[in-house]
Amino acid sequence: MKTLEEIKKFIIENNTGYIEVNTQKDMQKGIYDKAILYLLSQIYQDEDVHLALCTSGVYSGSRAVAGGKVIFFITNKRILYGCKDFLSATLKSISFDDCNDIESNTLGIFTGKIYINTKTEKISFEIDKKHCLRIANTIDALIKDICKEKKSEATVVVQQVSGANELLMYKQLLDQGIITQEEFEAKKKQILGL
Q1: Distance of CA 126 to the CA centre of its chain
Q2: Interatomic CA distance for residues 15 and 132, integer angstroms
Q3: Would you say the pTM of this structure is higher than 0.70?
């Protein structure tokens, strides 16, 4: 997702709002538009929003770090949240490498809390009680999938570099006259999988 309308539609259809009934009305009235557009302006060219949600505030422990109409994005690169009003803007980015786990509780009357435990802080925000556990599980699964995919990509890069290094080593052996051109070509085909 990369547009205002896509984000608003996602939040309404997936019930990822602070309080479900109010969120739908707020989205239709454009109350969260500034915050959504602000966060969209902060994403990278190769970054795509996989999950969006809105809340009324974000806390680090008991300290408020963002208040008002706050938008959360989980992209293919990071967690990003913030808000924008007339006088100020708040933006925070969390690397997936810093995330330890996700927790939730539904002890509130209308809202539940989701906690993102990082290496340095415990971020929390309120979300509609009916959807709190589902959203927390979705966030947890999404972060795990993205991290797994990144590790898989890193493994492919390491294998390619290892193959390149091995090919370079055989080229040096050929240049030194230790192996023949035919032996080099055979190893090259083996390394490149041809």
Answers
A1: 19
A2: 10
A3: yes
Give the percent of the chain with pLDDT over 90.
59
DSSP state of 121: -
Within 10 Å of residue 65's Cβ, how many Cβ atoms?
18
Residue for token pair 């680090």? 60
Please state, in angstroms and as integers, the Cα–Cα distance from residue 55 to each residue in 21, 101, 111, 148, 174, following that order: 13, 20, 10, 28, 64
**DSSP code string of 163-183:** HHHHHHHHHHHHHTTSS-HHH
Q: In the chain, how many H helices and how many E strands? A: 5, 7
Q: Please tell me the distance from the alpha carbon of residue 187 to that of residue 172, in angstroms, as a whole number.
A: 13
3-state helix, strand, coil in the chain (%, to 5): 45, 30, 20
For 74-122, the pLDDT digits (tens) are: 999 999 999 988 788 999 999 999 999 999 999 888 899 999 999 999 9
Residue 124: count of CB within 10 angstroms of its CB: 21
**Across 148-175, average pLDDT:** 74
**3 C-beta neighbours (distance < 10 Å), count:** 12
Looking only at the bridges linking them, the beta strands covering 89-95 and 99-105 are: unpaired
| Residue in 24, 96, 95 with CA at minimum distance from that of residue 54 | 24
Tell me the three state secondary structure of residue 47. coil
- Which residues touch 24 (CB under 8 Å, ≥6 apart)? 12, 17
Amino acid at 177: G
